[in-house]
Amino acid sequence: MFSPLRPSDTPIQTAAPFGFTGPCLRHARDEEVFGEGEAAEHVYQVISGAVRTLRTLRDGRRQIDEFHFAGDYFGIEAGDLHRVSAEAMTDTTVRMVRRAALSQLAAKQVDVARILFRLTVEGLQRSQDHVLMLGRKTARERVVGLLIDLVERTGADGELDIPMTRQDMADYLGLTIETVSRTLTQLQADGIIAIPTTRHIVLRDGAALRRLAN
């Protein structure tokens, strides 16, 4: 288990993406990586653990816009401020790359510019898929789609160790926590999944799961 580091602690220096050497900071579960409205001075990469990015309404309700896993980048902004907050979902290590240095490198090296363009387009595509899911899919389709997405993104082979809580899932899917729990229970009753523990899901019938998603 990782020991949380405060910003004042000495960061770990490791080889960063795009040829930089950047600091890696450890964040404890539920610790904020950056806040909505803060200066967007860095681009981030998840080294281990998982991160959620979200916006919070004035009444305290959350909308999670994305989950980020090992290898994923986040915090790429068009403007000077972060439009979302980022929080560790588990004990997590995150690498920081200074945005100004990255922009300078992209201006000189075409391959770096291409990587940034690809990451931006991939983020846009996932946002478009998320909007479609929220606007047109049933509760069951949303939950099933999330499970399939987690399998594909984490490389799980029939079993999922999920870092997010049921509330995280609900706030991403635009559902209540009761609906998420009820849907998972029904999938288990149908023999499609098994839930040995809250954070561990076994996919017993992957083909049936995909049919439900489609």
From TrEMBL:
One of its GO terms (molecular function) is DNA binding. GO terms for cellular component: cytosol. Keywords: DNA-binding, Transcription, Transcription regulation. SMART domains: cNMP, HTH_CRP. Pfam families: cNMP_binding, HTH_Crp_2. SUPFAM superfamilies: cAMP-binding domain-like, Winged helix' DNA-binding domain. Residues 137-207 form the HTH crp-type domain. Residues 31-75 form the Cyclic nucleotide-binding domain. This is Transcriptional regulator. It comes from Caulobacter henricii.
